[in-house]
Amino acid sequence: MALMGVGRGRMAGARRGLGARARATRGFAGWKPPPEREREQGLHERVRRRKGKGRKGERDGRGRASGESLNAGKARPLRGDAEPHIKEVKARGEAGETEKERARRVVDAFVRFTRPHTMMGTAISVTSVSLLALRNSADIGGAFVASVVIALVAALAMNISIVGLNQVYDVDIDKVNKPYLPLASGEFSEGTGKAIVLGTALFSLAIGVASGSLPLMLTLVASLLLGIFYSADLPLLRWKRFPVLAAMCILAVRAVIVQLGFFNHVRSALTLHVGSVVKDRFEWASSLGLVFGTGFMVLFSVAIALFKDLPDIVGDEKAGIKTLSVVLGRDFVFRACNALLMAAYASAVAVGLFCTNVWWSKAITVGAHSILGLALVRRSRDVDLSSSDSLYSFYMFIWKLFYAEYLLLPFIR
């Protein structure tokens, strides 16, 4: 979190206060600044840093900061606002921070630990698939709302556990590729990371058991197991080292398990509670939207699985991880991912034209996917393959398309 702003009036008052205390104590041998002055000096230093002034911001004749090495410009820059954020965290630690500032810093670090773009993807996908399970307006009621809330809480907790597990085993790699993550930056210790991973996994599984929903429990367990297979550095595991296995893990979770598991979790909640009759078992169900969504997300998930390694090629090469981006090169993988995404949008337009039976569903399916496909083509032309930041920005754009698809999925009937 950014440091709180300080007004000029408050600064002037602080300076006058410092002068007064200095005059009052002048002449005493061995005098040292009181704690109040030390805190104010730290405050002045933080303000100078933010304004680019003072010792930390002074520039020599060549435009370098004082104390900056000649090779400093060769270091790989952190993405986005990561570098100033980490500097602010260190500055707060050096100057002393209030309890409120410390709490904000911890919350901010935890949010980064959860990988917000994956949390948003999970929340949108679970909600969308749950809406897809509705057969008609009569299904909207207490049982539906309760099943969705249970699924969301359990899925988000499991998401934190899975992405956290990957960070625990990828600390050295993330110091190169993602130094803004709390384990890589040192804001969280390894023990803290492991505690969060274990706690969220147990919490998610406890919700699954308490719900009594077999589809939900199977979905949570399968997702956790694949997350362990993908990240854990154990014998026969850490499948992320192998491009095909890595893609299969992501594809299985995002394209198949999420669709089938949460759809049937909600559908079972609706069919097991019909009026005053409670059935003793559920039947696996399907629909046009579910079949289409699964097929579409297969293509999309493969593209995401391949593209996510493009911005991280430097760290992966140093760690000896042979991703397709490392083996085949950025250009080939970039073009292959774009081809998969365009194939997904072309198939969506075809489904809208020939498979949907309702006019409004046909119009939304064809129109929206045509617009998104054109947006993809236009955005891909602006990507600089030599820039990790440009590739990462496009990767985040793909996630936005991923979110948009789940918003459209309930309209495919």
Automatic annotation (TrEMBL):
Its main location: membrane. The keyword Transmembrane helix applies. Residues 1-10 have a biased composition (Gly residues). InterPro entries: AtHST-like, UbiA_prenyltransferase, UbiA_sf. Pfam families: UbiA. Residues 11-30 have a biased composition (Low complexity). Residues 34-45, 55-65 have a biased composition (Basic and acidic residues). GO terms for cellular component: membrane. Keywords: Membrane, Transferase, Transmembrane, Transmembrane helix. It is found in: Membrane. Signal peptide: none annotated. GO terms for molecular function: prenyltransferase activity. Belongs to the UbiA prenyltransferase family. This is Homogentisate phytyltransferase. It comes from Chloropicon primus.
